[in-house]
Write a structure and sequence with these properties.
- The chain folds into 2 domains: 40 residues; 139 residues, no CATH class.
- The protein is of the alpha+beta class and 193 residues long.
- The strands form 3 sheets. It has a 3-stranded antiparallel beta sheet.
- It contains 2 helices and 9 strands, in the order H-H-E-E-E-E-E-E-E-E-E.
- It binds zinc ion (3 copies).
- The site of one zinc ion (ZN) has 6 residues, from loops.
Amino acid sequence: MELPRTTTTAPLGRRAFAARGLGALAGLTAAVALTSVTAAPAARAKGQAGAAAQGNWRFCTKCYVMFFWGFSDDGHCAAGGAHTQAGYNFVLPHDVPETGNAQANWRFCSKCYGLFFFGYPSGGWCPTGGSHYAAGYNFVIPHDVAETPSAQAYWRFCTTCYVMFFWGYPEKGRCPNGNGHNAAGFNFVIPHT
Ligand SMILES: [Zn+2]
Ligand SMILES: [Zn+2]
Ligand SMILES: [Zn+2]
């Protein structure tokens, strides 16, 4: 069965990005205008920041990475073939300020469709060969906050291939070197619907 897909929020969409930028700007102008007549600008600003997020990110049951499921194909899995999605529909905040509990520089790889950390000089190790290739939004991922019914913990950075992978199972998925991923750093807690 062909499942419905959306391409309007594709991370490669430059036009979509520009439109979102304009929307945020328009919202900001409105908020500034409202500030003069209301006493709650902070609440409004928070709501706008929450709106900058992209859905259709999924867990891959074969390699355990977080990958983008919004295209007609499902990228390239380190376990062979395309990724296979299951579970929650994750919604990743992007282009918002980095904080003590949210790390920036997480990007979509246009070669394997995985979410990987682009904050080091090297772009990690892509299952298609070479480094991951960053495109689209700059995702800012929450970490070391409480897990809730709408945010899942135990997502981690892999020091070998630089992807975001789910660490909550005894098995640690599949890295391009054929072994499991190797976790380090923050305990990411990722929002989902
Ligand atoms: Zn996979
Ligand atoms: Zn890649
Ligand atoms: Zn890995």
